[in-house]
């Protein structure tokens, strides 16, 4: 069955624990992580199905980020899973690799040079909001530092891949004129 009716009273359960209100900070953070993971799925599909047929090789990095987000969700829900320093180093390595391939704009850019870069910029903003939600949830539930470090690096990764997607398309990314 795809429903249990156990949440009809406005509560939900975490692994091995009593039920909590669905509007708790923990469930807000879990929902934000789920939303981000789903949006990364859209980005994976968009990266794989580019109209120009070019492969930027970013889909595997995004898919790996989805896997890592599931680990953070599991940690937050009470599972014995963990984000390790190796995961963080992997993201940092990917960012460093992309930085060798792009020209850093050194300024804010207006999102939307391409459909893919726009979705990646949207994912970056959702990643930042998710990070804030997870930080707030730490008032109710401890989360180890590596998970927080990973979320912080993830938004940087999404910024880098958005710039790569735009640059590769040849479409300019203008800065705001203020």
Quick gist of this model?
The protein is mostly helical. It is built from five helices and two strands, in the order ββααααα. It has a single domain, classed as Cobalamin adenosyltransferase-like (Hypothetical Protein Ta1238, Chain: A).
Task: Characterise the protein shown here.
The protein is mainly alpha-helical. The chain is built from five helices and two strands, in the order E-E-H-H-H-H-H. It has one domain: Cobalamin adenosyltransferase-like (Hypothetical Protein Ta1238, Chain: A). The chain has a two-stranded antiparallel ribbon with strand order 1-2. The longest helix has 25 residues. The chain is elongated.
Beta-strand fraction estimate: under 5%
The first-to-last residue Cα distance is 54 Å
Order of helices and strands: EEHHHHH
Helical/strand content category: mainly alpha
Helix content: 55-70%
CATH homology group:
Cobalamin adenosyltransferase-like
Question: Could you tell me the radius of gyration in angstroms?
Answer: 18 Å
**Main β-sheet, in a few words?**
2 strands, antiparallel
Number of domains: 1
- Oligomeric state of this protein: single chain
Helical stretch tally: 5
Low-confidence stretches: none
CATH classification, class level:
Mainly Alpha
Shape: elongated
Q: Whole-number average pLDDT?
A: 92
